Each structure stands twice: as structure tokens, then as C-alpha cells.
Amino acid sequence: MKVKLKNMVCDRCKTVLKQELKQAGIDILSIELGELIVMDEASVSQSVLKEIAERNGFEVIDSNTSVLVENVKTALKKKVESLQGLNEKTSTFLSNELNVDYSVISKSFSASTGITVEKYLIKLKVEKTKELLQMGNKTFAEIAYSLDYNSGSHLAKQFKNMTVMSMTQYRKLQKWNRRTLDRIV
Q1: What is the extent of the structural domain holding 86?
Q2: How far apart, in whole angstroms, are the C-alpha atoms of residue 164 and residue 48?
Q3: DSSP tag of 182
Q4: Same domain for 143 and 105
Q5: What is the rounded distance in angstroms from the CA atom of residue 35 to the CA atom of residue 29?
Q6: CA 164 to chain centre
Q7: What integer best gives the mean pLDDT of the chain?
Q8: d(Cα 157, Cα 170) in Å, to the nearest integer?
Q9: Strand pairing class (28-32; 35-38)
Q10: Contact, 179 vs 127, CB < 8 A?
Q11: Strand, coil or helix: what is 33?
Q12: pTM given for the model
């Protein structure tokens, strides 16, 4: 049985859920960000699975639109986190990754979340920028380049629009104001 989950954003999420399911005696075939495949669906109560997921901050999703939106979020999170393939057009990347026409993706995402796919990607990039600034081992230009911005000033402008402070001001902060990726939208 394939189960789609909301709010899975990192490998730690997979580890926690895997341990919980194992303790409950539920055998899983595989677990990926946003998706779980249970080995023997006959032995698993849907309500038990839902309860375990919710107890750990995840949500079982079942509508086609919700599944599509979560797949978009997961694909974009992986893309930004890996810092690879960012130069590919978002529409092309998502259409290829999800095997769905981009107009369907865009309309479903906007209707469900209230923001565009592009705005969501910018928010992800700003959060990744915060992480890289906090680490302190890259220049602004290197950060901009790694996130596929044409210039550091373009990233700086988007960063300031989202955070109401410059990247320099943010780097100097001692209290980092970062959001977890599952709380962006």
C-alpha cells in the first residue's frame, strides 16, 4: 500500500517515522520524503497508520490535488536542498519530475496554497540562503551562484523583500530567524 504524507522534509523525518512504524509492528517496503510503501496492507489499519503519522507531525493525504501539491513541494525542496539542477526552468523540471502538464501543476498549487510555484521556490531559496549565511563559509556571490541567481544583487533584493533585512544584517544576527521547510506554506 502506498501512502502519501505531508510535512516530511528531511532524512530525520524518515528515520523517526520508520522507527515508530517498526515499534507498531508495521513492515515497510520503502520510505521516501512524502511517501511510504507498507509491505502487507492487509495487516495495517489505516487509522493506526494515520495516528502514528499525526503523532509525529505528519499528515496522511488522500485527495489527488493534495498529493500533487505535496509532490511539488517535495520535488522543489529536494532540488533546493541538493543545490543541483537549479538552472533548469522550474516548469520543465516539475513537468518532467511529476509527469504532469505544468499548467495543471501551477493551477492546483496556487489554488491549494494561495501562492504561486515560483513564489514558493523563492521562499525555499531564501531559507536555504539563511542556512548558508548562518554556516558562514560562503560569500554572498557564492551563495547566489549556488542557488542559480544571475547576480548577487538579485538574490539580495529577494532576500530583503522576504526578510525585511539585508543579507549582511542577517549574517550578523545571533538569533537566527529560520523557518522549517514544512512551515513555508
Answers
A1: 64-118
A2: 43
A3: G
A4: no
A5: 11
A6: 23
A7: 86
A8: 13
A9: antiparallel
A10: yes
A11: coil
A12: 0.72
